[in-house]
Specification:
Layout lengths: L7 E6 L10 H24 L4 E6 L8 H8 L5 H7 L6 E5 L10 H8 L3 E7 L1 H14 L3 E3 L5 E2 L3 H13 L9
């Protein structure tokens, strides 16, 4: 798959996370494993002036203020991940009510306004929120790259199956960063 960086945006899904749920310890461990690759992806986007869009669960706060979500989610376990990758001043930040970054959010409008037709998806959880986002992106005719080393789930098998679906059904490139 070839794509133009001028037509590309990077989406970080649910990176700001408290990991305080059943299975959160597994997701935390797997997220720590991919953190160096997420940082490499951020550096790539910054170097090439590719917009970075964070789309995150709202945690009942319902305000698109990254600092509020960061404060709510910060704890001893999550803080190293949040601090390493939190949104910067020029990044976009959206909240989502459910799994997909497109469902009841302005993401589609934002990408259209920015002239983006290709997205690079990264973050957590691969077998839920990234999978649902990829399904919607495919339905909106976006092309996708979902680097397999930039996505984590609670269970590695679920992550691998989600990657298989996104590659085979949604035609996403899954080459590592």
């Amino acid at each position: 798959m070839t794509f133009s960086l001028a037509k590309t945006a990077v989406l970080f899904i649910d990176i700001i996370n408290d990991f305080k749920f059943h299975g959160g310890d597994k997701l935390l461990a797997h997220t720590k494993e991919i953190l160096p690759n997420l940082l490499k992806l951020r550096q790539f986007a910054e170097k090439h002036h590719v917009p970075i869009i964070f789309v995150n669960d709202h945690y009942g706060l319902w305000q698109s203020e990254p600092e509020l979500i960061i404060d709510y989610c910060s704890n001893e376990a999550s803080e190293p991940i949040i601090e390493a990758l939190k949104p910067k001043e020029n990044d976009f930040f959206l909240i989502k009510p459910q799994h997909s970054a497109f469902f009841q959010t302005p993401l589609h409008s934002l990408l259209t306004d920015l002239g983006k037709t290709h997205i690079i998806l990264a973050g957590i959880a691969g077998d839920i929120c990234i999978l649902f986002t990829a399904k919607d992106a495919y339905m909106y005719h976006f092309t996708m790259h979902i680097p397999k080393n930039c996505m984590a789930s609670e269970e590695k098998e679920g992550n691998d199956y989600a990657l298989y679906l996104m590659h085979s059904v949604m035609k996403a490139a899954i080459d590592p960063i």
